[in-house]
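Justification of computing resources. Each target in the renewal requires a structure prediction run like the one illustrated here; the chain below, 218 residues long, is used simply to show the kind of job we budget for.
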Amino acid sequence: MLAGAALALLTSSVAEARTPLPTVEVVPSPRRVRLIDTRGPIQFGWGWSNHYRAPVYQMSFEAQTSFVALSNTTWLHLSLGESAVISAVRPPGEETTPGFLGLDLGLGLSRYAPRGPAFVVGASSGPRWSTDRDDLRPNGVGVVGKAELYPFYRTVTELVHDDRNWLRRYLLSGMNVWVSARWDWVGPQQANTYAAGVGLDVGRSIMLPVLMAVDRRR
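Resulting structure tokens:
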């Protein structure tokens, strides 16, 4: 009996030894510093500038590249852009409408959860040029703070693999509204400008056909 019990126990142990153990797949976490997303909005708006004590038009084009993942939904981005502030009123006796141009480099944060809107905030600074001068040397400096909302946002990666119609890919995902506050020292004057408006991410719309063609060849 004892021998039989020992044999049964040994047989059970051998069977358990032959049973493969469950495997655990180790998935490496993505690197924090990497190319995450990119945007290239063209924006147009209206506001008020204390430079001219008058309403102004504000236009800008900016390239934004998210490259640091602070969390699953929050990214740090680098921005480089051009902007123009033009008075909506020509001063009496002046032949041209006053304004100035800017070239800005800065950093910002973008927060986006899949199937949700995207919020983007940033601050940038750079040189300024008066539009009434022919000299290419800057005659001022400025700082800009901006907040943007993309109601129907999708990342570039999501858009490349999105099977929905072109309206969402090329238009809705890039539509945005924005507000900005800036301080500019141009020539002898230094003053604030406040503006708000709408924009469209034209930069991504230009890149998407190329990225989709590359993705199909893989």
